[in-house]
Specification:
- By secondary structure, the protein is of the alpha/beta class.
- The protein is built from 13 helices and 24 strands.
- The chain has two domains: about 5-20 and about 230-430, Alpha-beta prism (UDP-n-acetylglucosamine1-carboxyvinyl-transferase, Chain); about 25-215 and about 225-230, UDP-n-acetylglucosamine1-carboxyvinyl-transferase, Chain.
- About 30% of the residues lie in helices and about 30% in strands.
- The strands form six sheets. Strands 3, 4, 5, 14 and 15 form a five-stranded mixed β-sheet that branches.
- Helix 4 runs parallel beside helix 6 (about 170-180).
- The chain starts with a strand and ends with a helix.
- The structure holds shikimate-3-phosphate and phosphoenolpyruvate (PEP).
- Phosphoenolpyruvate binds near residues 50, 95 and 389.
- Phosphoenolpyruvate (PEP) binds near residues 316, 389 and 416.
Amino acid sequence: MSTAIVNHIQVGLKGSVQIPGDKSISHRAVMFGAIANGTTTVEGFLPGEDCLSTIACFRKLGVTIEQEGEKVTIEGKGWDGLKEPTDILDVGNSGTTTRLMLGILATRPFHSVVIGDDSIAKRPMARVTEPLRSMGSTIDGRDHGNFTPLSIRGGATKGIAFQSKVASAQVKSAILLAGLQSEGTTSVSEPALSRDHTERMLEAYGVEVKRDGLTVSVEGGQTLKAQHIVVPGDISSAAFFLVAGAIVPNSEITLTNVGMNPTRSGIIDVLQQMGANLSIQNERMAGGEPIADITISTSDLTGIEIGGDLIPRLIDEIPVIAVLASQAKGRTIIRDAEELKVKETNRIDTVVSELKKLGANIEATEDGMVIEGRSSLNGATVSSYGDHRIGMAMAIAGLIASEEVKIERSEAIAVSYPSFFNHIETLQSK
Ligand SMILES: O=C(O)C1=C[C@@H](OP(=O)(O)O)[C@@H](O)[C@H](O)C1
Ligand SMILES: C=C(OP(=O)(O)O)C(=O)O
C-alpha cells in the first residue's frame, strides 16, 4: 500500500492534458469484441486496472486478446467462441466487469465462478442475478447470489420485460446482453436514463437496439460483427481537473478529447450552474460518441442543489463535486444519491469523513450530503479506503490545502487513472 503526498500549489495550474480513455467504453469494447465474429481493434483503450481485469477474464474464457498500452486486438469467434474457464474469473475491483460479464455468461452453456476483491464482495449483485435467473440462468453465490463468489451455469434463456428499480447502466447492460442470446424480446425500463454506451456500441457492432424513452429492447438471436473502436477520453477522469482548474487560484487548463455523451455530462451542468469559467471547443464525434475540448479557469463559485435525473449523469463525480462545493459560496445540497452507498466504498461516508479531516463543512444525509462553503482546507492524513475516486478527490483538495495532505492507499487510483499524478505534475510545471 502506498501513501501519496500532495502539497499546496503556489503558482496555479496551467497547460493542457489529454484525458485517458473512458473506462465504461473500454470495458464494453473488449467484451463486445470477445463475443463478436472477427478481429476487433481498439484505440484509446484505458489501461487502468479495472479494464485489465476485463481482459484477464475474457482471456480465461478462451478469447485471444493482445494489449499494448492503449491498443487492443481481440480475436472474437462469436458467442460460441467463449469456453468454460478452467480457473476462477477474478474481476478485481470492477463492478462493471462483474455485472456485464454475468449478463454474457448467463446464456453460455457452461459453468464459471466469479470472484473479486474485498470491495466487490460487499457490492449487491442481486440486482443482476435475480433478473438473469428469471430468464432461466442458474446462478448461486453468497447470500443466495447477492454477493461474490458467484457461480453461474448459463443455458437456454427467455427474454423478459424488466423494470429496474435503479437507474443503473450495469443492470441495463447485463440484461440486454443476456437478451441478445435469449428467446424472444428482452426489454429494460429504468427510472431515469443511465449511461447509454451499451446501446450505442451494440449498434456499432451491428445489433438492432430499440429505444423508447426510458425503455430499451433487443430481439434474441443477434450476433455482433467485429469493429474498430475509438475510445473517447473519460469525462469522469476529466472531472478531477475541471474541479482543480476552477478552485486552484491562477489556473487555466485545457482538457482535450473529453467524452461529452449527454448521459455522462452532468458535471458540466453543475460547473455552469455554479458559475465556473468554462468553455467548450472542437465539438466532434469519435467512435459514435460526442467529444470536445474544455478550457476551465479559476472561478467564483456559488452553491447549488443537485438531485433527480441529474444524479445518474454525474454519479461517479460526486466525490470531487463535494470538493468543488467546499469552495463555492453558500450551501450545496446533493440528494437522491443513495447509489453512492454501494460503490467501491460507501461514498457518502468516505467523502464526508475525509473532507471533514481537511476542515470542510460537510454533513452526510440519508441520500447525499450538504456542504457549506467556502472553507479554507487544512492539511491532514486521509485515506482512499481503496476507492480510486476518493483518492483522487482528496488529491484535488490537497492542491488548495494550507499544509500537505497525505493520502493513504493511493495505489487505488490506478483502477481508473494510472497517469493521474503525472498529469498533475504536467500542469504544475508550466
Ligand atoms: O456501466 C458502467 O460502465 C458504469 C455504470 C455506473 O454504475 P451503475 O450501473 O451501478 O450505476 C457507474 O457508477 C460505473 O462507474 C460504471
Ligand atoms: C463505480 C465505479 O466503477 P465500477 O462500478 O465499475 O466498480 C467507478 O468507477 O466509480
